[in-house]
Amino acid sequence: MCAHVFGAIKGLFGKPFDGGKRMDPGVPQPQPQTQPPQAGFAVPTFVPAFSVPGFTVPGFSMQHPAMARLDEVHREVTALGPQVCTFSGLQNDREYKRLERELARLQLEVDQVDTEGRGDLQVARKRAAQEVEGLLRYMEENATHPSRVTIEGLSTEARRLVEEKIVAPQRAGGVAEINDELVDALQELVLKLTQVKTEGRVPLRKARYRALTRLCAVQEVIEGRTQQTLSLPLSDDTHEAVHRINAIMVKVSVARGQLVALLMGLSGRDSCAHLSRILTELQVELDALDVSGNSVVRNYRKQVVEEINGLLKQLDLEGEGDDTRRYDLGQNDSIREIEAVRCHVSHLREAVLRSCFVGDFSFRPKAEMQSLLTRLDQVDTARNPCIREARRRAVVEVQAVITFLDLREALTFRQPCPGEPHAYRTVWNVLGNLSELQAQVLGFDGKRADKSYLMLEELLTKQLLALDAVDPQGHEPTKVSRKQAVKFAQNILNYLDMKTDEWEY
Question: Residue 175: which residues within 8 A CB-CB, separation 6 or more?
Fold first, then answer.
């Protein structure tokens, strides 16, 4: 356990229990907001005996035996605290049962402390009991939290898909069923995981992050296979080393299936360390082959080595999530950059809406908005799916303003033709309505239960229905414009939904 995590447990004594949020004393933390304790949760307030006057027997310099035992409990709780604060599993996990046994033992020992009727010892015993009970309750709440259950459900669904489409066929000696349907299903699960609420709880953040990193790693392995451009295998007659390279490629294909099974928790025999040794040995064997006299075979070997490196890259996930900065993103530089862009977008959006409100359409900061998209493209996500989602959402915010400006400009400069079809004019009328509604959506700052949200949702749905009723009658411009208008309306609805889904890092 890292030193900074041990420092966090100091907050368990003499301070309100914060659920392990103060994880890194070396990083400035935001001031916690005062909140009432959760129902049924005893806020630990146990104070070490040596700091409280009157806890020793009058006339003696030695500590009272009861207080000495409570001090021992204090030290044991201090040792268990960081493990409880970062435990991200479920109640049936072996680690949960171990921690539960240790805390239950301490709880029993506190109950057995003889206070001899002394008020000060009774207070100290009560505080110690609250401390142990607080950790037990906190661990149980996280292991049974609805968000934790959701994370486990999505992980189970991902394992089922991978088992059915990839692992089982390969174990049976067949070929993995990798298709667009599988790729889309996995991507949908990734999006659902990124949207799980964690309420700032470290165990929930850790559980979400670990599930995401493994699923994203499986995605990369699958995409690496589907996008493979090697013309494999080369003929054994090409070079004497080709036969050995082709044999290694067969082993790499098997290792790929083993890696996917490992990442999804579907392999009970192998380990990341074992698979890493196998892949490294294959690399050494490839390096020992003499292919210097044939550039085709040399490039072939190079591509095989790169494929092995791609698999090795995914094998560092065994300890993923143990570093606080990986799943607690408040101090992450990439998130700070994304937030800086979002702040800039917010100011530009307000300026655009103000200018439109007074009828001034000359303010069109499209070039500035495009530069913000470039900044977002350059953000390093560090293979972190939560940072990827944060960047995606920021990109959607920028694009929403750009499309609003584009439509306003198109409406401003549109010159209706006398002979244009009625259906075509109807589509443009709907686009005008959508522009007005999008201005309201851009300025919306509420929740889904708000009346204004429900009103906007209903009005946008009505515009979609109006577009569905348009009959192009073979008029190609009407077909194209209606299709674009439908997509535009759906994008506004999606943006409104995104603004109100209360997503967090």
Answer: 169
Other C-beta atoms lying within 10 Å of the C-beta of residue 386: 24
Determine if residue 103 is left, alpha or beta; phi over 0 gives left, psi from -120 to 50 gives alpha, anything else beta.
Answer: alpha
| Average confidence (pLDDT) per 10 residues, the chain, 505 residues | 38 39 39 40 36 39 79 89 90 94 93 89 90 93 95 93 84 75 86 84 87 83 58 61 83 82 73 83 87 78 85 68 61 87 93 80 81 93 80 93 91 84 92 94 90 94 94 89 93 91 73
Nearest alpha-carbon partner for 439 in 356, 318, 343, 383: 356
C-alpha separations of 71 from 83, 109, 138, 184, 489 in Å: 20, 12, 22, 56, 65
Residue 56 DSSP one-character state: B
* CB-based burial, 482-504: b 16+ in 10 Å, e otherwise: beebbebbebbbebbeebbeeee
Beta bridge partners of 56: 63
Q: Give SS3 for 204.
A: helix
Q: Supply the pTM of this predicted model.
A: 0.61
Tokens of 332: 């992450």
DSSP string, 210-252: HHHHHHHHHHHHHHHHHT-----SPPTTS-TTHHHHHHHHHHH
